[in-house]
Amino acid sequence: HVKDHENTHVTFLTDVITSLGGSPVPACTYNFPLDNVAQFLTVAQALETTGVSAYTGALDDLDGDLLTAAGTIATVEGRHATFLSEVLGQLGFPYAFDTPLNPRQVITIATNFITSCPFDLGVLPYTQLTAALPTDGSTKVSTSFEGEEAYAIENTWCQFLYKDRVVVSPRAQCALPPGAIGYVYVFVTSSISPVNMPNSDILAGPALLFNGSHKNN
C-alpha cells in the first residue's frame, strides 16, 4: 500500500499545482542503497520520517487547496513512518508532536539520495553530516563532516531536534538527550542559537538517527 499511496500523492499534488497555474517539476534521478531487505526498510524509514517533517514544516507557507493537500498527505506519511519503525522493532509513535524541518534542512537529507535533477532545487543544502549513536554505555554521539571547521571542537555545538524540542550540547560532549527516544535530527553549529530559529549558524546537518527499540523501552 505504501507504494500505491506515494504514487497517488504525486498524481494528486501534480493536479493541484497544475490547477493553481503552477508547473510541477520533473523527476530527479535517485540512488537508493537497496542491497537487502534491512537496508530497504532503513532507507524507507528515513524517507518517510523526513517526509513527515517536510510536510509539517511547509504548512506555514501554504494556504487554500495546497494547505489541505499537504495536511491530508502528512498524516498518511506519519502512518507510513510508524509502520516502518515498528517493522524494524523501533517505536512507531515516540512523541506527542512531530518535528518540522525547513526546506534547506529537508534538501540536506534528500541529497543523500539524489544523483541529479533537471532543474534548480532553489536552495543549497547544508554540508552533509555523518552521525552515529553512542556505544559502550557512552552518551556521546559521534559526528564528522568535511570542511574547514570539521575538526573544530571548541565553540561548536551539537544540536538535537526531536518532537517539539531543541537540545544543545557542546560538541566535545555531544550528549544525546535522554528524552530522544525515537527519531532525532542532529546538527553541528557554530552558535547556541537553536536550529529551528533563523541565523542558527549550521555547519553541517541534519543527520537523522533512530534511537531506542521495544526491547529497551
From TrEMBL:
Name by which UniProt lists this protein: Uncharacterized protein
Entry superkingdom: Eukaryota
Pfam families recorded: Ferritin_2
InterPro entries per record: Ferritin-like (IPR012347), Ferritin-like_SF (IPR009078)
Organism: Dissophora globulifera
